[in-house]
Amino acid sequence: xxxxxxxxxxxxxxxxxxxxxxxxxxxxxxxxxxxxxxxxxxxxxxxxxxxxxxxxxxxxxxxxxxxxxxxxxxxxxxxxxxxxxxxxxxxxxxxxxxxxxxxxxxxxxxxxxxxxxxxxxxxxxxxxxxxxxxxxxxxxxxxxxxxxxxxxxxxxxxxxxxxxxxxxxxxxxxxxxxxxxxxxxxxxxxxxxxxxxxxxxxxxxxxxxxxxxxxxxxxxxxxxxxxxxxxxxxxxxxxxxxxxxxxxxxxxx
Length: 253
What we know:
By secondary structure, the chain is mainly α. The protein contains twelve helices and no strands. Helix 5 packs antiparallel against helix 6 (110-127), helix 6 (110-127) runs antiparallel to helix 7 and helix 11 runs antiparallel to helix 12 (231-245). 73% of the residues lie in helices and 0% in strands. The chain has helices at 3-19, 29-38, 44-59, 64-80, 85-105, 110-127, 136-149, 153-168, 177-190, 195-207, 211-223, 231-245. The radius of gyration is 21 Å and the shape is globular.
């Protein structure tokens, strides 16, 4: 092959490679160690260790965007498993702050928007629905942004959160069980084995007086094969499903 032809072939190869879609870089170093610890988050000490690793990774100047959204994700988990309500709100506020930093670094990336909306939501739950109605609009904005970027993210996460918002908010302030149902059915399409999709759907079915559908949905949680990366969540969601099935709507008259 002549030198000129080699040059042309090289240019064509480079051009072809450049046209390929960019792949997300796998985390390395301390960030990867944090991910490994987070995979064992069923042990809350491991979740806290995962957060500490992310703080080390930030000091070591690893990818800041990836670190900040992961911090928001871990803080959601830790806060959700913290009993003291004041401490819970402080942790969720840190999650909000870190997700905002992620969005500053990657405004067109999905993770920061999703975990910001999630932390807004749980912070609002900790404060109480009526005291946190001001968060409804920003939660919806973040989730709609997620839908624009990647509607399948977190296996229907945006539709899951929107469905829950429409269920939890009083009708006078924009709550709507029919819209809740629409979003949650979409979430289940993306994540049929995500227990939280199904728990939220069951609650909406109950409010719509569709008790048989709610029962079937809760029973699905008890019988489905857990997703390998959602084993801690599925174990908790099964306990919640069993408890719901013992409540009044499901008792035979």
